[in-house]
Amino acid sequence: MTENPPNPAADITGPHRYRNSATMIRTADPAWLGAAQAGLIGVVADSPDANNHLVTPDGHAFVNMCSCSYLGLNHHPAVVEGAIEALRETGATSLVMPTTRVRHRLLARLEEELGDLFGCHALPGASCSALTAGILPLIASGHLSDGQPRVMVFDRFCHFCMSYMKPVCGDESLVLTCDHNDLDRLEEICRTYPRVAYVADGAYSMGGAAALDGLRRLQERYGLFLYLDDSHSLSILGEHGEGFARSQLEMNELTVITASLGKAFGTAGGIAMLGSREVFEFLHRHAGPVGWSQNMSFPVVGASLASAAIHRSPELGDLQRELQENIAYFDNAFPTSFAGNGLPVRRITVGEPEAAVKLSGEMFQRGFYCSAVFFPIVPKGEAGLRIMIRADLSREKLDEFIGHIKDLTGTTDSTTTH
Length: 418
Prior knowledge:
With 418 residues, this protein is an alpha/beta fold. The chain has 14 helices and 13 strands. The protein has helices at residues 21-37, 77-90, 105-118, 128-140, 160-163, 166-170, 183-192, 212-222, 243-246, 277-286, 298-311, 314-333, 353-365, 395-409, and strands spanning 53-55, 61-64, 121-125, 151-155, 175-178, 196-201, 225-229, 255-260, 270-274, 345-351, 368-369, 371-373, 383-388. The strands form three sheets. Strands 3-9-8-7-6-4-5 form a seven-stranded mixed β-sheet, with helices on both faces. Strands 1-2-11 form a three-stranded mixed β-sheet. α8 (212-222) links the parallel β6 (196-201) and β7. α12 (314-333) packs parallel to α14 (395-409).
């Protein structure tokens, strides 16, 4: 029996169960193109003072309000010197081979130091996204728990690097999406299915945080597996910088917390906080991009060791206090719906993408670069500016920024909706 020849005219469109690139691009690309036409995409600049102030080739100076280096550690002299020293010590950029086979002594030392610092079994990776890509499918298949597949419930607002994995997880188990922090719906799913995993941010990239108390209760009651990406709070919270989620959750075999080392930690790459050494070794064998040859370079490892040393010193607490003081100062002068949450991401909502791009462009002309965010980064109708408060922003610059925002938005009572 012969197979029928392929029909070129047949509809080969996918089922679009978890993603629809055509719809997303049709909706979002006009805003991206508008931002590009306004000169807000692909800006080329030099950094004479490493982070805060940037200068374009034609001499336009501006303050960077988009940096996620919340503590300023990316330009800390000790962190920079740590990268240089590692390069000198090893005489190479990396081993350029899978860590599954061989891990350099410096990387093994970083694993130990981060594990000691954050009270976990620490698995570094080339990026938080690479860790997510390697780990989530194994949670879905059940191989990080009892070997039985788990229903994967993604928070609607979880970061793109996690949502991106829905199709892959969907080949292993049922994938569902629940509204943001909707614990009632999540509990209903836990009652319906015996094995469930919840995928969410700890501190969200667009502001706000996970409902940890309720998630802890659901884990205790139903054995809920928690996968939390806490990239935007690592280093800024906790005695040793363990972050929003880790400072409130005990590590166990039903909890994985990932985070980027390329934000407040000040270096690059990512870390997965694990509950056991067995899971650590298993992921090295089976988590795909976790063990591939595109891993941490020696300068990044050296910089990360230096940052870890700062995290063990009183300086971390000083930087955390400076950040919290700046956050409180901003919230007092320009309250948003996230005011008082102790996290550094703030959103100024203006509604439509065109208005967000216009406001971002006007702020850039006045010497401040801040991201215009729009669908699918934020829900439709909630476009605006995303800004990051940092410890190394001066009060003078914060005042100047707030003054310009109030002027351009016509805000006189220091309030905004988001």
